[in-house]
Write a structure and sequence with these properties.
Order of helices and strands: HHHEEEEEEEEEEEEHEEEEEEEEHEEEEE
CATH architecture of the largest domain: 6 Propeller
Shape: globular
Largest sheet: 5 strands, mixed
Radius of gyration: 42 Å
Number of domains: 2
Helix content: 10-25%
CATH class of the largest domain: Mainly Beta
Number of strands: 25
Length: 480
């Protein structure tokens, strides 16, 4: 019995332990030993799964070296893209610059068929010693030449090319020259009812009209004033009594960006050229280097201003025909004069393109003979020399004057294209020439450098230049 009693407990305990495990899996009642065992097994399984998941996640996570290598690759790719973009921009810029340089410096101009005037020849002489005579207007009624003058001492310090950026010590002025006395001295015009210590006249335009009240013939002068506060058009009435200009009014507009020249078409209305879209020096250099055509023509109808022409290549001079039916605009970079027809819409002042006249030199101001309608064009044969002269690297620059004669319809010059018929491209038909181009004057710059204007009166040419300190009066000898 004792032996039997001693053998039973181990067997029972073993059975109970096995049963406990099975019952634990079946969610049956268990003893304390069985519960502990089941929890231990379950925790072990759960921990194993978490460890396996964590190991998998750790394997997916990049190492520090991998992260560094990936960042370096992305940065290299980004740098390569930036480099390619910069190279593309550089190539495009170089292409634009080469094209611009080719057009400005290499492209051949029209051959000048005129005897050069070196120094003072017998048919030319210096007169009217005044600083910077940039523009000239001829008054047949008064037999006077009106000359705008400025010493341009502000150019170096100004951040603008065309006007001072601060108040200057010296003002400019307007002078009259008696055309009947070839060696007469210029007289400074007295400005009445005009108080300004910031007067820098440039482009001008004269208009003769009859006063409605007094029925007297009057001369009105429109003047572009390059004030340091902004460009303004000043309007005056001239009186021979006392050689004075009486102030009428000022015209200001945000559209007067870089005004160069002005053309009056009646006592109130005028057209005006802006040769660049940006007034500061850097903007102008960018426009010129890129060959951008951003010039405009602005119209003032007596009350408000508006743009009538855009995307022009450096429009410098502007003038109207004697009957006011056509407007002429010079394009400095394109070396040509554009002819436009006016419309009857006085309020809008729209212009319709008629024809382009190629000059072959870089065209500056225009002057119209009120009797014949011929256009006298001052121009610069060499842009490179002209630019170096303006920057004071060259002491002088050549001057060239051309006459444009308007032909009668029966005298139009027919033109034929030199191109043949190529497959389905027919030979182009060219319109006839309505204007004849004649060279009147050429100088290497010793007598007058970089002429900006040439006016005609009684078989004499009167030349002026903003970089000279005198006028040049010549009797041209046409050789063609």
């Amino acid at each position: 019995m004792a032996e039997s009693s001693d053998a039973t407990p181990p067997t029972t305990t073993l059975r109970n332990r096995r049963t406990t495990v099975e019952d634990a899996e079946d969610d049956s009642d268990t003893s304390p030993v069985a519960t502990t065992t089941a929890t231990s097994v379950s925790s072990s399984k759960s921990t194993t799964k978490k460890d396996a998941k964590k190991d998998a996640e750790d394997k997916k996570k990049p190492t520090a070296a991998q992260v560094h290598r990936r960042v370096a690759q992305q940065q290299t790719k980004k740098n390569s893209q930036i480099k390619n973009l910069l190279i593309s921009l550089l190539v495009a810029t170089m292409g634009i610059l080469l094209k611009s340089l080719f057009q400005k410096f290499i492209f051949a101009g029209r051959e000048i068929a005129i005897e050069q005037t070196v120094g003072l020849q017998g048919n030319c002489f210096k007169t009217a010693y005044i600083p910077g005579p940039a523009d000239i207007e001829i008054s047949d009624h008064n037999q006077l030449a009106f000359v705008s003058s400025d010493d341009y001492s502000w150019k170096k310090s100004s951040r603008f090319f065309h006007r001072p950026s601060s108040k200057t010590a010296n003002n400019g002025g307007i002078y009259t020259l008696d055309l009947n006395h070839k060696n007469g001295s210029p007289k400074e015009v007295k400005l009445k009812s005009f108080i300004s210590d910031d007067f820098h006249p440039a482009g001008m335009s004269l208009y003769d009209f009859q006063d409605e009240k007094t029925h007297e013939k009057r001369t009105r002068l429109f003047v572009i004033n390059h004030s340091h506060k902004g460009d303004v058009v000043e309007i005056f009435d001239y009186s021979a009594d006392g050689n004075s200009l009486t102030f009428v009014k000022s015209v200001k507009s945000d559209l007067f960006v870089t005004p160069k020249d002005i053309a009056a078409i009646d006592q109130d209305r005028f057209y005006l050229t802006n040769h660049h879209a940006m007034g500061n020096k850097y903007g102008r250099v960018i426009e010129d280097a890129a060959g951008a055509a951003m010039g405009t023509v602005v119209y003032y109808n007596g009350q408000e201003t508006r743009k009538v022409l855009e995307n022009l290549s450096n429009p410098y001079g502007i003038a109207s025909s004697p009957d006011g039916k056509q407007i002429y605009v010079s394009s400095f970079m394109e070396k040509m004069v554009h002819v436009y027809n006016t419309t009857e819409d006085v309020a809008q002042g729209q212009l319709e393109h008629d024809v382009d006249i190629w000059i072959g030199s870089h065209v500056d101001n225009l002057s119209v003979d009120r009797h014949t309608g011929d256009i006298y064009v001052a121009s610069h044969p060499s842009y490179a020399t002209y630019l170096r002269h303006k920057l004071e690297y060259e002491p002088q620059s050549p001057s060239h004057v051309v006459k444009l004669e308007k032909l009668a319809p029966e005298n139009y010059i027919p033109r034929e294209s030199s191109m043949g018929n190529y497959y389905f491209f027919p030979k182009p038909e060219l319109p006839p020439l309505k204007w004849e181009v004649k060279d009147l004057f050429y100088s290497n710059g010793e007598d007058i450098s970089a002429s900006t204007v040439a006016a005609y009166w009684n078989n004499d040419l009167i030349l002026g230049s903003s970089s000279s300190h005198h006028l040049l009066r010549c009797t041209p000898r046409l050789t063609q």
